């Protein structure tokens, strides 16, 4: 690694939400900067006036902030740097490294079609290169591309790359409206901001030779390039909506934890031994570009769910209590707990549920019956567990629980053991209809945890309600 200061940048175009690919690029830049004690710059490339929006800019900020990817400098906006781009383009004109082109779009398209018909590359033919006149009408500023047969670059991920310089044309630096093109503004900004490493998606590889020749024309040192492979879906095609959500904030809305998503996208193309779960501090400690692969990373929703479940399990219940609240429906029929002065806190309910939940939405669905009596029984639960055959068993539970002197685990174990012997059933066979009656679900934590959380009065009322659903007596 060079001794020069490490300076990297994330430079999104604000034309939509922050997607997973962009978030991974931002994360890799962030981790690289933190690992090498460098500087992470945020730059908003908003010179596309038709597609760039304030809403998209805010969506980018929201996504980065939710993922805790914080930047050191910026945000800088290209739309606020037009004077800088004009100054650089003027200097290129004066030095003869750029020229004004007055060809109309119609003329360019005609020549393009003629070249294609002849089997030639459809590149600009350079006919305005030597013009000294200044006709009226709009013009663009083109870069006078140097005649270099081969352009070489050593990519930190993909190794040696070679580009045929003869295929490059005199590309546009400044459009007729005075706005810079992407490749021009990027190079000016990277020079001005002293960017040492350009870490970006490999869909930008084709931009690299144009940018290299412009760096050289401006007398600037080249940054080091590192092109990250794309993210693909399970079908090996580029990740898109058909593979699931691609927007970062959609995962927040689905109940994923930000640290889990950061952990997952960090592992899309990067690895450290066989480790799967990383703290943020570990990601910073271990991350470097030499462990980033050159093959496309495969996005796997099930693996992300598994990883999110690990984070759910290991997050303190008090913290999960705050995170789950936006996912809880309004409580319309609050539970009348036996001890109204000290009902179970949400964190206590979460403590017994979180190890069975993969997302915050899962957790909300599970804890909701412990907060609101107005939960519904699914058809599956009714048909399998709350049938006429379960009525005698539920009635026995209701009668025995009602007369218990102590509502504690030993007393509950004794009652359930007795009922099991009377009915000739194992604990699993006893617990399933009882669980369905108390939670409306076929899966829950241990049945004793459920009974103790709800309390005697609530258990009695729920069994009574379940009996009515099953067609039994009250």
Automatic annotation (TrEMBL):
Chain positions of motif 'HIGH' region: 12-22
Where along the sequence does the record place the motif called 'KMSKS' region?
Answer: 238-242
Any GO BP:
glutamyl-tRNA aminoacylation
What does the record give as EC number?
6.1.1.17
User: Which enzyme class, named as a word?
Assistant: ligase
Q: Which GO terms describe its cellular component?
A: cytosol
Q: Where is the signal peptide?
A: none
- Give a GO molecular function annotation for the protein: zinc ion binding
Give the main localization category.
cytoplasm
Annotated localization: Cytoplasm
**Residues annotated as binding ATP:** 241
Q: Note the HAMAP family from the entry.
A: Glu_tRNA_synth_type1 (MF_00022)
Q: Write out the function statement from the record.
A: Catalyzes the attachment of glutamate to tRNA(Glu) in a two-step reaction: glutamate is first activated by ATP to form Glu-AMP and then transferred to the acceptor end of tRNA(Glu).
Q: Which family, according to the similarity comment?
A: Belongs to the class-I aminoacyl-tRNA synthetase family. Glutamate--tRNA ligase type 1 subfamily.
Q: What is this protein called?
A: Glutamate--tRNA ligase
Q: Organism, per UniProt? A: Leptospirillum ferriphilum YSK
